[in-house]
Amino acid sequence: MPANNKKLDLERLFEQNRSWIKKVTDDDPDYFSRLVDQQNPEYLWIGCSDSRVPANQIVGLKPGEVFVHRNIANMVVHTDFNALSVIQFAIDRLKVKHIIVVGHYGCSGIEAAMNNVRIGIADNWIRHIKDVHDKHNRELSNIHDQHKRLDRLCELNVLEQVVNIGQTNIVQDAWSKGQGISIHGCIYSLCDGVLMDLDTTVTDSNELNQRYLRLLSK
After folding, report:
1. Which of 104, 136, 184, 211 is labelled catalytic?
2. Is 186 a catalytic residue?
3. What value does the CA radius of gyration of the chain take, rounded to a whole number of Å?
4. Does residue 97 surpass a pLDDT of 70?
5. Is the pLDDT at 208 greater than 90, yes or no?
6. Model's pTM, two decimal places?
């Protein structure tokens, strides 16, 4: 693509930014002055990088009301210092009360893992999703419809990430100090915009394993 066309594409974003500012301030003149002091979220949202799953809009929260971390397939890997740093900052600095893992049906990262699609360097990240698939292979292999199998893997992946978060020393230390933190798992449907609770909420170490085993036994 010629350099001039690329510049025009970028200019379009700047123009849209100015239009957005005007619309926001016309509706609410104090929007930005109030936003400066509004970073006081109760929620940490851990979601997929998919651009069709915007955190604030889905749950009707304003900027500053939710702290967001996103990556391919909403993973929390124990060696990922990016995610761990976000979790620790959210708990220790922002004092969030809820950590919400939000997956979505039709996730292309999870589909790539399920179908062994090679992508490139992202294969190293997707390997963790394959581990979830292998762990639950018995259940998944009994689902013959491919779309339903993918949907179930998306749900199981959320469940495993809830457990991963609860097992971090960050959350374990917070719980041991009596800090009230709840971890939730949800799944979002691109088809109708509905966010569904997967009934994975845990609030302490004892509940973590009990809830996990109960959900798998359903």
Report:
1. 104
2. no
3. 19
4. yes
5. no
6. 0.89
52 is known as an active-site residue: yes
Does the annotation list 186 as a binding residue? no
Q: Is the pLDDT of residue 63 over 90?
A: no
154 is in an annotated binding site: no
Marked catalytic residue, from 26, 37, 52, 118? 52
**Of 51-55, 110-114, 120-124, 146-150, which range is least confident?**
51-55
Query: 184: exposed, middle or buried (C-beta count within 10 Å: 0-12, 13-18, 19+)?
Result: buried
Verify whether residue 28 is a known catalytic residue.
no
Residue 107 annotated as binding? yes
Task: Confirm or deny that 26 is annotated as ligand binding.
Answer: no
- pLDDT tens digits along 128-184: 999 999 999 999 999 999 999 999 999 999 999 999 999 999 999 999 999 999 999
